[in-house]
Design brief:
The complex is a heterotrimer of chains A (415), B (354) and C (196). Chain A is of the alpha+beta class and 415 residues long. Chain A has a domain of 283 residues: Cytochrome-c3 Hydrogenase, chain B (Orthogonal Bundle), CATH 1.10.645.10. Chain A is 44% helix and 12% strand. A three-stranded antiparallel sheet of chain A has the order 1-2-3. In chain A, a hairpin with a 2-residue loop joins strand 4 and strand 5. In chain A, helix 5 runs antiparallel to helix 6. The radius of gyration of chain B is 22 Å and the shape is globular. Helix content of chain B is 65%, strand content 0%. Chain B has one domain. Chain B is mostly helical. Chain C has 196 residues and is of the alpha+beta class. Chain C has a domain of 135 residues: Alpha-Beta Plaits (2-Layer Sandwich). In chain C, the strands form three sheets. Chain C has a three-stranded mixed sheet. In chain C, strands 3-6 form a two-stranded antiparallel ribbon. A two-stranded antiparallel sheet of chain C has the order 4-5. Chain C is elongated. Classes of the chains: A alpha+beta (415), B mainly alpha (354), C alpha+beta (196). Chains A and B meet through helix 4, helix 5 and helix 7 of A and helix 8, helix 13 and helix 16 of B. Strand 6 of chain A pairs parallel with strand 1 of chain C.
């Protein structure tokens, strides 16, 4: 890892040695900078061209994997949600799936559709967040406000469904926590139609705007082989021509029964990455329509596995029906054994396609009521290496372009 | 023998004040309209308008909380008071004299072209002899940008130096465009006299209609020179914190922000007089009010509309990259400026007159 | 019907079409929204959102239904619920004994709602508001009497209640939520509302 290392200089294993160039101008786009996020990027410039880019990350490290070892199984669901709060359901779902594999239960069908519904709502909200931040890096504040304003529609849908705007904590072992309310299908259809109409307007003012096109086209090109070599995942890889999506390779939840496409672009530049996210939003809208249609037609049963619902007292069913006035409606009560759940020993792994790429959990248990080890590999963890290898050779004003088009979210890396 | 009454004394003093101090052309031009008072009033209005116009497009309200009935207009007064009383922090590593003097010099020099423009066609209200007023105004408008580079160098901060270098590239690019576009009316009308240029447009056909390419070129050159979107390059917030203005705080920061707008105002007044008819179609009558005050108000209104269009572009465009903006200027706009000059010559040859 | 990948292309445009049509398209859209804006800002605290009943807000205890099983304290992820011992007169056995009841510390509560969901006798419930203000952090640790009463919602005394309804053309539209619509157990129709 030492490029052109000076021989004769003693170095310890892991130390990176490089000669200091004299003609280079070092700029630190530091943590408190309007265009850097929670990280520092050390840039060495030769005139206007970047020669070396070094992302300096780890400012938001919260030791989540270690904290998970001291908490009960169900308490880790709100913990892991705070890793990337934008797509909360996508982040906690692999943990729940892995523990379900250890418990050897499988959620019933309505629960699978409900989980897929919330996953897609969160995916749209996450992509809109990425589009908004990317636009404000380029100076285009209109799309920033429009993306966050339209994201409000989907956050409102999620609030109708789960009761909280961002920190849903929705999937639990065996099923979900709430069912859809009575007027949810018509609201969801209105939201879907509105978003389709809005995406055309985004294309008109942002993606087809000659100013923005010139800024994005042929900037940060990653070829297919280079993307595979660097190990990039998610919409960034699909915009370079790699046809990889976890919903395609290893379908989970209700995805084997839903009918949608996975868009793949071949150009690999920033414009392709921006279009990739817009196309994925369109596909997510299709999935939401199909899921809502299915949920409306089928009867309201099978939202929680029988192991945790069959022996429930009559009060639980009353709460679900809404017979108790202060308690709301369609709420799934949890059995008290959730608090002291003991998971049989074993090892399990699960992965899910989150908004930014593939997220992977490895859970190991030795029979107690706290996990022995939880290991998380997040999509931003895999994407950040591209900064080091893709950015050199571009001009300084391309740094926000490439950064924004990758949709890198520092708390997700730093856990 | 006249009675020396109090009323006559006051009316005499009033007449003297009016004719010799307020409406005395050099004082009126540099301080009242289109000088300091009008520039500050229009700048305050324009900052408010920019925030409101951008907010209307962007699904929000803009300034509203201070007085909901007037749409948040006193917000600007509050901002001004905040800038006035904020603590002035001067970094110890900065070059003190240049740090303090550069913004003030930039403000004064931005306003200097206003002494050379006429506001009426009656000769006793001209500040300077009008023979070559267009040339004088254009020449004076090129003095200010050097002080941005001085500010950037004096700040002793890497981001400021990067912003100053970008500003110097852009200054070289846009000046030629602005000068050629403004001077492209000269072959058509055979005169450098701004009063004659406006008088030629009294018939109703403005020079902007005869030579729209020059109008478009001048509009884009003004955007480039004063950091208007899509050319907001030296002052790009998400890349260089605030460019040359990074280390400034307090009243000097307010002067910097306002100075950019005042520069845009000076160019807008020039553009109004040359391409948009000036005070046409109103013929100035005799007397101070009809002959001096009213035509200057018409010029102010037209220049404000031009500035409002420039402020609206904030809501539609992003930022160009530096080399893209420069290639646009050198490869597209300068040939267009020469083409506008050529159109002017052709129109003179074929006898097309406004 | 599983998913299938499909290759798409970025829409290309010719140089002149890009320069002219792109600019004109963006400018006309900007002008259209300038004259017909669609604003969704909430002018808090002059207006406040009247949240629906399923919203996970502050938590209130019903004393008579609690059976002291301590499931809520055990499941709380943030250790915000604690059991305290009080002397109560048990009605069936007719003598005074020490029993445990939960109290809450709002410094730590993350409003996840797991305690409300796990209570076997439905002794806890959510109130649909969340914007309360305290003057010091000790006030946020409630004792047993404070936990049983609904917190005072100050914003409703000064502001106008609004709700956002979904709309096809405008996304979310702010409308005034009339107080007269409130009937028993209703306040909106969502997961936790209607009692038909």
């Amino acid at each position: 890892m030492s490029e052109g290392s000076a021989s004769g200089v003693p170095h310890l294993p892991g130390m990176e040695v490089r000669p200091v160039e004299r003609n280079v101008y070092e700029v630190q786009i530091g943590p408190s900078h309007p265009g850097s996020g929670h990280m520092r990027i050390i840039v060495e410039l030769d005139g206007d061209v970047m020669v070396r880019v070094d992302p300096d990350i780890g400012f938001v490290h919260r030791t989540m994997e270690k904290l998970a070892e001291g908490r009960d199984w169900i308490k880790n669901i709100p913990l892991f949600e705070r890793m990337a709060i934008l797509d909360a359901c996508n982040i906690t779902l692999p943990y729940v799936e892995a523990v379900e594999k250890l418990l050897d239960i499988e959620p019933p069908e309505r629960a699978k559709y409900l989980r897929a519904l919330l996953c897609e709502i969160n995916r749209i909200a996450s992509h809109l967040y990425g589009i908004g931040i990317f636009a404000v890096f380029l100076g285009h504040s209109t799309i920033y406000m429009w993306a966050f304003g339209d994201r409000e529609v989907f956050v409102q849908l999620a609030e109708d469904l789960t009761g909280a705007r961002l920190t849903h904590s929705y999937p639990v072992f065996g099923g979900v926590r709430r069912d859809i309310p009575d007027d949810f299908p018509q609201n969801a259809r209105k939201a879907v139609r509105y978003m389709r109409y809005r995406l055309d307007e985004y294309a008109k003012i942002y993606l087809n705007n000659p100013n923005i096109r010139k800024r994005l086209e042929d900037v940060g090109v990653i070829s297919k082989t280079k993307a595979a070599e660097l190990g990039i995942v998610g919409p960034n890889a699909r915009a370079s021509g790699i046809k990889y999506d976890v919903r395609l390779v290893e379908p989970y939840e209700a995805y084997p029964e839903l009918d949608f496409e996975i868009p793949v672009f071949e150009e690999g530049d920033s414009l392709a990455r921006a279009w990739q996210r817009v196309e994925e939003i369109k596909q997510s809208l299709n999935i939401i329509e199909q899921a809502v249609d299915w949920l409306e037609k089928h009867p309201r049963e099978g939202f929680m596995h029988d192991k945790f619902w069959k022996t429930a007292p009559k009060l639980y069913k009353d709460v679900y029906e809404g017979n108790i006035p202060y308690a709301g409606k369609y709420r799934v009560k949890l059995m008290p054994l959730f608090a002291t759940l003991k998971v049989p020993p074993g090892k399990a792994a699960a992965r899910v396609e989150a908004g930014r790429g593939e997220i992977f959990y490895y859970v190991e248990s030795d029979g107690k009521d706290v996990p022995y080890r939880v290991r998380v590999v997040t999509p931003s963890f895999r994407n950040v290496i591209a900064f080091k290898y893709v950015m050199p050779g571009h001009r300084l004003m391309d740094l926000p372009t490439i950064y924004g088009s990758f949709d890198y979210f520092p708390p997700e890396w730093d856990r | 023998m006249d009675m020396v009454t109090a009323a006559k004394v006051f009316s005499d003093i009033g007449w003297g004040l009016f004719h010799y101090i307020i409406f005395y052309p050099p004082v009126y031009q540099f301080i009242i309209i289109p000088g300091l008072v009008a520039a500050l009033a229009v700048v305050v209005f324009m900052i408010w308008f920019e925030r409101k116009a951008a907010a209307r497009v962007q699904m929000r309200y803009g300034p509203l909380e201070i007085s909901p009935r007037t749409g948040g207009a006193p917000q600007l007064i509050a901002d001004l008071i905040r800038y006035t009383v904020q603590e002035l922090i001067i970094p110890s590593a900065a070059d003190f004299f240049a740090f303090i003097v550069a913004p003030n010099a930039m403000l004064i020099l931005s306003l200097l072209p206003m002494v050379a423009v006429p506001m009426t066609s009656i000769s006793e209200y001209w500040p300077i002899p009008m023979g070559y007023s267009l040339l004088v105004a254009v020449a004076l408008s090129t003095l200010a940008p050097i002080f941005t580079v001085v500010m950037a160098w004096a700040s002793n901060n890497k981001f400021s130096v990067l912003g100053g270098v970008r500003e110097s590239f852009i200054v070289v690019a846009y000046e030629l465009i602005a000068v050629i576009s403004l001077l492209s009316v000269v072959p058509l009308l055979h005169t450098f006299n701004l009063v004659d240029i406006v008088n030629y447009q009294m018939s109703g056909i403005w020079l902007g209609l005869l030579n729209p390419i020059a109008l478009l070129d001048l509009f884009i050159a003004i955007l480039m020179s004063t950091s208007g979107f899509p050319f907001e390059i030296p002052d790009s917030e998400t890349e260089l914190v605030a460019g040359p203005f990074t280390e400034y705080s307090g009243l000097i920061y307010g002067i910097n922000m306002g100075g950019g707008y005042i520069r845009r105002w000076a160019f807008s007044v020039l553009m109004t007089l040359v391409f948009l008819g000036g005070w046409a179609p109103y013929r100035p009558g005799p007397g101070i009010l009809l002959g001096y005050f009213v035509p200057s108000l018409i010029v102010v209104v037209k220049a404000t509309i031009v500035m409002a269009i420039m402020s609206f572009l904030r809501a539609v465009y992003g930022r160009y990259r530096l080399d893209q903006a420069l290639s646009l200027a050198w490869e597209v706009l300068i040939p267009l400026a020469f083409a506008a000059f050529g159109i002017s010559v052709a129109e003179a040859f074929f006898g097309v007159h406004p | 019907m599983p998913a299938k990948p499909e290759i798409k292309k970025v829409p290309r445009a010719t140089f002149l079409g890009r320069a002219i049509a792109g600019n004109i398209g963006a400018l006309t859209l900007g002008v259209k929204y300038f004259f017909d804006p669609n604003r969704i800002t909430l002018l808090y605290p002059h207006e406040y959102i009247k949240l629906k009943q399923g919203y996970r807000g502050y938590i209130v205890l019903i004393f008579d239904k609690c059976i002291s099983c301590a499931s809520c304290a055990r499941i709380c992820p943030a250790k915000a619920m604690k059991m305290v011992s009080v002397n109560v007169k048990d009605k069936k056995l007719n003598k005074v004994m020490k029993k445990k009841y939960p109290v809450i510390n709002y410094n730590r509560c993350i409003f996840c709602g797991l305690c409300v969901d796990v209570c076997p006798t439905e002794a806890l419930y959510h109130v649909p508001y969340h914007d309360l203000v305290y003057l010091n952090m000790n006030d946020m640790i409630l004792n047993l009497e404070q936990f049983q009463e609904q917190p005072e919602f100050v914003t409703s005394k000064e502001g106008v209640p609004v709700t956002y309804v979904f709309d096809e053309k405008r996304g979310l539209v702010k409308v005034r939520a009339d107080e007269s619509v409130k009937q028993e157990g209703q306040i909106g129709q969502t997961s936790g509302g209607e009692n038909k």
